[in-house]
Amino acid sequence: MNLFYLPEVHEGTVQLTDEESAHCVRVLRMKAGDPVVFTDGQGWLYEGNLTQADARKCLADLNSKRKGEDFDGYGIHVALGPTKQADRTEWFVEKATELGIDEISFFITEHSERRHLQLDRLKRVAVSAMKQSLKSRLPKLNPLEKFSDFLAHADAGQKFIAWIDSGVQDLLVSRIRPESSTLVLIGPEGDFSVKEVEKAMSLGYVPVSLGPSRLRTETAALAACMGCHIVKQVKQS
Questions:
Q1: pLDDT higher for 10 or 146?
Q2: Where are the beta strands (DSSP E) in the chain?
Q3: Rounded to whole angstroms, how far apart are CA atoms 53 and 112?
Q4: What pairs with residue 77 in β-bridges?
């Protein structure tokens, strides 16, 4: 099955975007009459058939709508300091989207080396990953902001901060509750400062470890996402 993205999709006749039309005809070689499936990125899947297959303008008649099966009733939110190399942050967004993350935030800390972010590019990466992994939901991508500003408004049922400290022994996977939304903070390459950790802890964030290895920022962020995803699925089964 090939999945197409159309944010304003609805039942009836719809028109694919220019990019999706070109991909449909030139890459997938689809023709009028072929079955087609769309997602609105909000958890719904729409099925129908192409009525016009043109690289500049594809049309489809949609005749059914169903809820996607990739939402387990809990939320996973990972917030991180973007990596110095932009492609490593893009790698994380891609893989986390494939796993089914709900929300990704980015912040600037005292030790951050990257202070600018191309959010539009990250969204394109997420859309591509959503389609490739046949997800019905597109994760929410929040703009880059100061760490203090993020802490002032971010909230979740359970909040963790993962940082490198020998005194932190509790593993993230041992603290996750499946019935509650989860937010995990991951620092930049230079990690959080002591003051930043203390501030987060004063707001209810619990220090946790991701294991004995010292992980790169993007690897740590993905490990946090995967840990939340697997533990909650296992505990709910």
A1: 146
A2: 3-5, 12-15, 35-39, 44-52, 59-67, 76-80, 103-108, 140-141, 145-146, 158-162, 182-186, 206-208
A3: 47
A4: 103, 183
Quote the CA–CA distance of 79 and 25 in Å, as a whole number.
Answer: 38
Of 77, 84, 89, 97, residue with least CA distance to 205: 77
Pull the structure tokens for residue 8. Answer: 């304003």
CATH 2.40.240.20 fits 3-67, yes or no: yes
Counting Cα atoms < 13 Å in the Cβ hemisphere of 75 gives: 17
Contacts of 216 (CB under 8 A, 6+ apart): 83, 88, 189
Q: What is the DSSP letter of 143?
A: P
> Does domain 76-236 match CATH 3.40.1280.10?
yes
Other beta carbons within 10 angstroms of residue 228's beta carbon come to 28
pLDDT in tens, 134-143: 999 999 999 9
pTM over cut 0.90: yes
pLDDT score for 73 = 67
pLDDT tens readout for residues 174-222: 999 888 899 999 999 989 999 999 999 999 999 999 998 889 999 999 9
